[in-house]
Amino acid sequence: MITEHLITCLREAVASAQKAGELDLTSPPADVSIDPPRNKEFGDFASNIAMTLAKPAGLPPREVAARIIKYLPVGQGVIARVEIAGPGFLNFYLKPHWLQDTLLEIEERDAFYGTNRTRLGEKTLIEFVSANPTGPISVVNGRAAALGDSLANLLAACGAEVSREFYINDALNSLQLEKLAQSLAWRYGQQLGLDWAMPEDAYMGEYLMDIAADLVKEFGDRYAKVSEEERQAAFREMATSRMVEQQRRDLEAFGVRFDRWFYESSLYESGAVRRCIEEMKARGHAYEKDGALWLRTTQLSRDEKDRVLVRSNEKETYVAADAAYHKDKFDRGFNRLINIWGADHHGYVQRLKAGIAALGYDPDRCEIILTQMVLLMRDGEPVRGSKRAGDIIPLADLVSEIGRDAARFYNLLNSYETTATFDLELAKKQSNENPVFYAQYAHARCCNVLRRAEEMGVSVPQAGAVNRELLTHEKELDLLRRLADYPEEVRLAADMLAPHRLTAFVREIGQALHQFYEECPALKEGVPADLRDARLTVFNATRIVVRNLLTLLGVSAPERM
RNA sequence: GCGCUCGUAGCUCAGUGGAUAGAGCAUCUGACUUCGGAUCAGAAGGUCGGGAGUUCGAAUCUCUCCGAGCGCGCCA
Fold it and tell me: Nucleotides of chain B within 7 Å of a protein C-beta?
């Protein structure tokens, strides 16, 4: 890549200056950075190396810069000229072929353009959503779903082996599941005209009525005649399996597929939870107090107080199960675990890390992303969205109203670190204003021009077969610059676990494309054939990059709109 | 009270310790017998919550104050 080349040039120049006795340094510079400057007038790339070397060299920054410049291969390769600017920046101006030639690379690599191998050998498991099976997937879950899925795409694009996983809290210890089963049984009774008492804190959502109606259709009054215990067990089982099924469907409609749905109950059934607890005891990380077994989380992590592993009633807590679950992840060969949690779970980070450490694994290999809360607004009023009260807003409703692409893109617009305000009316209205259409239109527009060319009898040439030096218009170079920056942008977004950078970037490319389209006609009358052909290859390259980008975001790239 | 997180344009939000802090929406003004206008050109809009520190340089790092959200169970 071009930046690596320039960094090498800089390192060599510094070394040469040192050898010539012009720079008195004890060691070569540690990190040499070269970045695109914000302002185009400062060249194609800029480096702050002279400023960082000023102090060790005992010289003013601009003087350091001048001594480095003498040893840079200016004019020989891709570097047209280098200038000293401001407090001591080195501004690099490159020859235009560095941009024009990226067309060759884009065409050649096609769907792989933008991918890299920086994460080869990483086996990553991303666990996300993991909503309790007590209700449908909500719009709030949608944020984690969109984030986790495109994050997985991103890391895979960098060469990592990635697996998506959903953890189902279906343990028999779960009070919520008991409540859910009771609520479902009550609804079932209602369907049959039986006057069973409404359970305390019942789940009130309509989805339970739908399931109850299905059960009546399927089983008639069979479960009205059995014992309460038998009924409770049957409804717990049926409620869970049907909710999980629905969640799976909702997420698939959102374009998110998990490689595995992991049942918490399986950890109890296999004895893994029990074994982990024994292991923690054997390693001396657990102790008994008040009839319960405690984990020394304060010693193993920065937790505020120790946590209970086994209650005095001999039931294991989720702390034990979570530790067992993460041991299972490591034992399956994953060397990097990423969990996406809501910010309301921030208090559990340390105790999970303690559990991992207590079993002898490296807690730093488990990264926990906390997405800030989503504040739902409706008619200017905040919506609480409680599952129990039944006023959650299902993701499926949003998807059917504004479509999958818009819902996905909307959720990736901002960083997970900011509290998102999600205005439902606005989101729906934005079906025609959502920025996703801007990006998709850029793709459709490229396709349209290419299709139009074929209709006119002009076959779209290969980038290697056109005179790329004709591409000198400001808007052409601006667009090519974006296309050239794309691979670095992918690498950065993956490093920072920040797919939202890509939504910003695809808008920039869209803008550059639309401007190019306005000012650089290809198929209009009077455009010479060689220029026309060169520009057609730009449309084709842009089509490829926009498509690759949207694919990473989980958004479709339509050829017509 | 303790802990975690967040305060950037009217609104929703970007912003790798770098040069003059940027988009979209909303507002206002222009460009349509278009390579499909879901587009483009332009205007206006800011004490980056306040203060101090670190350094060649801070929206970005540290401290402190103010404001908002979340969490502080032998619930999950």
Answer: 2-8, 11-16, 18-20, 22-26, 34-41, 56-57, 69-76
Orientation angle between helical segments A175-191 and A206-219, nearest 10 degrees: 60
Contact A287/A296 with Cβ under 8 angstroms? yes
The answer to whether A56 and A114 have CB atoms below 8 angstroms apart is no
Round to whole Å and give the CA distance between A367 and A288.
Answer: 30
- Which nucleotide C1' is nearest A489 CA? B16
ipTM above 0.90, yes or no: yes
**CA–C1' distance A495–B49 (Å)?**
30
In this structure, what token pair is assigned to residue A402? 């504004």
Q: How far is CA A545 from CA A94, A287, A452, A539, A542, in A?
A: 23, 57, 20, 10, 5
Model confidence, pTM? 0.94
Task: Please identify which residue in the block is written with the tokens 């998990």.
Answer: A258
* Residue A511: how many other CB atoms lie within 10 Å: 16
Nearest C-alpha neighbor of A427 from the set A472, A456, A397, A465: A397
- pLDDT value for A173: 65
pLDDT in tens, A54-88: 888 888 999 999 999 999 999 888 999 999 998 89
3-state SS string over A96-133? CHHHHCHHHHHHHHHHHCCCCCCCCCCEEEEECCCCCC
Long-range contacts of A502-505 (CB under 8 A, 24+ apart): A502/A150, A502/A154, A502/A412, A502/A549, A502/A552, A502/A553, A503/A409, A503/A412, A503/A413, A503/A435, A503/A553, A505/A549
Go through the domains of chain A in sequence order and give each one's CATH number.
Answer: 2-95 (3.30.1360.70)
- Calculate the angstrom distance between C1' of B65 and CA of A219: 65
Task: Provide the CA A405 to C1' B35 distance, Å, integer.
Answer: 27
> Which residue's CA shows the smallest distance to C1' of B22?
A38
Residue A556 CB burial class (10 angstroms; 0-12, 13-18, ≥19): middle
Query: In this structure, what DSSP letter does residue A91 have?
Result: E
**CA–C1' A115–B44 (A):** 42
- Nearest DNA or RNA nucleotide to A536 (CA to C1'): B35
Q: If DSSP codes are grouped into helix, strand and coil, which group holds residue A187?
A: helix
Alpha-carbon A259 to chain mean position: 16
Mean pLDDT of A197-219: 91
CA–C1' nearest nucleotide, residue A375: B69
Instruction: Give me A423's structure tokens.
Output: 């205005």
Gap from A339 CA to B74 C1', in Å? 26
> For a pLDDT cut of 90, what percent of chain A falls above it?
75
- For A69, A349, A421, the CA distances from A310, given in Å and listed in that order, are 67, 19, 39
